[in-house]
Amino acid sequence: MSEQQHEAAEHLVGVWSLVRSEFRTAQQQVMYPLGEDAVGQAIFTRSGHMSGQLMRRERANFASGNQLTGTPEEVQGAFHGYVAYFGRYEVDAGQGTVSTHVEGSLFPNWTGGVQLRYYQVTAEQLVLTTPPIPLGNDEITGVLTWQRVTPVA
After folding, report:
1. What predicted TM-score, i.e. pTM, was given to this entire model?
2. What angle do CA 98, 127, 129 make, to 5 degrees?
3. Contact yes or no for 39/55 (Cβ under 8 A)
4. Distance between CA 10 and CA 92 in Å, rounded?
5. pLDDT tens digits, the chain, 153 residues: what are they?
6. Does residue 87 contact residue 99 with C-beta atoms inside 8 Å?
7. How far lies 79's CA from each of 46, 132, 152, in Å?
8. Pick from 119, 120, 100: which is nearest to 110 by CA?
9. CA 87 to chain centre
């Protein structure tokens, strides 16, 4: 890792709390698939590991109280209201990107792949943006805004 990449990665290290999760269309319309008050946490370690979790704040409980006996509707609601993955990450300071080599994900299709995000980071805030994602005749871009919870030591 180059000095510039190491320095950029160092700025990501810490625990981050989700401030806002949104998708924007090419026409700048804003959507909130997890609700306007979604919650989440991202963790980036110095050793190059990360994990990220986001969820809809108000998800319905399973009537049975048992995750193995949820109805199809309960399971679908829980799945659609949660995003989670973890793996090793690399920073490309020149491109302004962070790439996570996904080792595990709630969405199985991501496991074994790479999730690319553009980043902007300050001492207290991190913004991660997806590359454009085709959606019908349009494109959407995910924008996650995070607030630092722990200081960089």
Report:
1. 0.90
2. 60
3. yes
4. 12
5. 566 666 777 889 999 999 999 999 988 899 999 999 999 999 999 999 999 999 999 999 999 999 999 999 999 999 999 999 999 999 999 999 999 999 999 999 999 999 999 999 998 999 999 999 998 888 999 999 999 997 655
6. no
7. 30, 23, 33
8. 100
9. 12
